[in-house]
């Protein structure tokens, strides 16, 4: 490869990186906003003090999804269940991650969720869409979740020294599923001993 071709490639790659940074200086993944999945209005909003100190990982124990139309339907049905059956003010999770690589904004940053009793007011709840008892989310979903966490730190939403847990460490649940729980034990910030 000639020096000229190498130089052109470096310029193109640098330009692409600059465009990506210009589009989102915090390096956030693609987040489908609430309007994008037809979220119902929240009946009550409680705000969090930031930066948030904890992250709790869940799975939704539903079917998994790749394509946006299917994922939007699943997220909307979770919100309906949380609001109508559980009588919560909104969907319980802050964010939901799909195998296809999109993140769906649940209640989003700044807001207290209803995902982990005793930790709601001091954590961000991230749920992977699907049942991950026997298998892992897609490699793309795992990468996107890591990107979302870094995005939260970059925006000042998450403390740079946040602690990360699987939901089963804090409450009587199988979530986030055995396979996913074993995976997150290897992640940075994982804490084997939550304070209950």
Q: Give a count of the beta strands, DSSP E runs of length 2 or more.
A: 6
Largest pleated sheet: 6 strands, mixed
Fill in the CATH topology: Lysozyme-like
Main sheet: strand order: 1-4-3-5-2-6
Which second-level CATH architecture applies?
3-Layer(aba) Sandwich
What is the general shape? globular
| pLDDT averaged over residues | 90
Structural class: alpha/beta
The termini sit apart by 59 Å
Superfamily at the CATH H level? Answer: Peptidoglycan recognition protein-like
Q: How many distinct folded domains?
A: 1
Backbone CA Rg: 18 Å
Q: Can you tell me the CATH class?
A: Alpha Beta
Please indicate the percent range of residues in DSSP E strands (runs of 2 or more): 15-25%
Order of helices and strands: HEEHEEEHEH
Domain N-acetylmuramoyl-L-alanine amidase: 40-177
Organism: Aedes aegypti (Yellowfever mosquito)
Protein name: Peptidoglycan-recognition protein
Domain Peptidoglycan recognition protein family: 29-171
